[in-house]
Sequence to fold (282 residues):
Amino acid sequence: MNLQRLLYLTEVADGPTLSAAARRLHISQPVLSRAIRLLERELGVSLVELRGRSLHIREDAEPIVEAARQALDAVQRISQTATRLREPVLTIAATRNHQSLLASVLPLLTARTGAAIRLRAAVGSDDVLRAIRSGRADVGFGEAVVVGDDMAATIVGEIALVLAARRGTNLPNPVELARCGPLPLVAVAERERWALLMQAIAVNGGSVKTVLEVGDRSTMLKAVEAGVGFAVGTRSVVAANPNLELFALEPPIRYQVAAIRLRHSTTAVGTLVDVLTTLDWR
Fold:
């Protein structure tokens, strides 16, 4: 079966018109129409119908379109896997917060696995899982989450949250949550650890208030430097900033981090996961 015709079929399904699909494919409309007719002849079924003045995929042909998308995705994964076999490169998907943890150990991971390690940005745990399933990443790294039967999650350590404040701030160390009321915080819109903080407050007492919400961590840290408020996050996010001090929280707020991979992954992926389990994640 001609893969190019399957690609043409999915583009027609994406609409809104045959001419629009042809423009996206950088071919003429007659060439696209002829390819669809040849695919119909090969399959022995009609795939498109006329609605008004435009051709559209028949409703009962939608399963064929979905199967075509899956076939094209599978071909892409085969190509990506072959590339990795030729060139030993392993990709780790992680959120920005966890990428900062991985950045400092990339040389060590490369040395122990014998492969070049690349980081791929993800927006939340669901995006990490999608990257692995689609073949865009070999391993996911981040907060331990429930995964499907097609994946395996290996706990590699626990990470404690800390409170970042402008250097010279008069705070006890550790900061007792039960005596905070309310603790002024600068927060990013993507609040990866917010739920853990609120859960700890619900159990132990105390309160917080958001005094400023920003779009990224760099702006958040600048606001903390300026004394606008405090920030809660992992040590790696703020440890390298000489203008900030870090305070432990009492009781400690920790979460497990995991390395996630497909169950039927390569030996190289398994080696990378094994190496991640030997490192000190705090």
The CA atoms of residues 191 and 233 lie 9 Å apart.
